[in-house]
Every structure is written in C-alpha cells, then in structure tokens.
Write a structure and sequence with these properties.
By secondary structure, the chain is α/β, with parallel strands linked by helices. 18% of the residues lie in helices and 37% in strands.
Length: 139
C-alpha cells in the first residue's frame, strides 16, 4: 500500500493560514508544532490534520507564489475529495473566503477551487458516484 501522508507548505502567517484550513476541515486539529532553523532561517511550524493525513505549515515564507494561470514550474494545485461540497462552500464563505474558480460539474462530480491566504490553489471535489469508471471519465 502507498498513500500520500502530508504536504509540507511554506506560508506567510500560521494563524491566517489556519483560518482557511480550519474552515475547510473542521474535524482536523493542530497535531503539534515547534520552532527550528531551516537552512539558516528561524521558523515556526505546525502539523494540521487528523491521525492519518496532515498539512505541515512553516512560517516566514518569502517571495511570490508562481502564477497559477501560467506555465512556470511549481505546484499548480492540490485537491481534496469531500463528501458534501455545499457545506464546505458554506463554511469557507462564512470564514470570508470566496470561490476562485467554479470547477467541473456533471452527473458524476462537482468541484470548486479556492486560493488559500498564501496563494496556493486548492481544489475540492465531491464525487456523485462510487463507480470508478464513472468518476474517471476523460472525454
């Protein structure tokens, strides 16, 4: 078995970042954190998630995020499967975040994209079928 356990993201501000992800994932918690030096820079870090998956946030990011609409190397977006997309949209709206892109929608799935406070593009998709061949249509 193989699965993705975590993403390690450099961010600007831990509290601001948490405001987005706590609204998206109210069942997740801060698992731990600390301070340390990373390549000569003092950083605070936290792990936010559940017992099996998490996001690692490291503060004091510098520079600009690559333009997500461009073709520069780097992360374009990452995605989460959710069981109730409308509830997620409602939570993020109440927390002050707006949909950046209305994603695909058909009889098998619905999706939206948000920009987190650091400029990471995050997709949320709700599959409306449990049949893999219906979920994974590329035509």
């Amino acid at each position: 078995m193989m699965r993705l356990e975590h993403l390690n993201l450099v961010v600007n501000d831990l509290a601001e970042t948490l405001s987005f992800y706590q609204a998206a994932f109210p069942h997740w918690k801060v698992r731990g954190g600390g301070e340390g030096e990373w390549h000569g820079v003092l950083r605070k870090w936290i792990h936010f998630g559940d017992d099996y998956n998490y996001l690692s946030f490291n503060d004091n990011g510098k520079g600009l995020m690559r333009p997500v609409e461009g073709y520069d190397l780097g992360l374009a977006h990452f995605a989460y499967v959710v069981s109730d997309l409308q509830s997620l949209i409602q939570r993020l709206t109440l927390a002050g975040f707006e949909i950046a892109i209305q994603g695909g929608k058909d009889v098998n799935y619905d999706s939206v994209y948000y920009m987190d406070p650091n400029g990471y593009e995050v997709e949320f998709v709700e599959y409306l079928t449990d049949i893999p061949s219906e979920r994974n249509q590329y035509s």
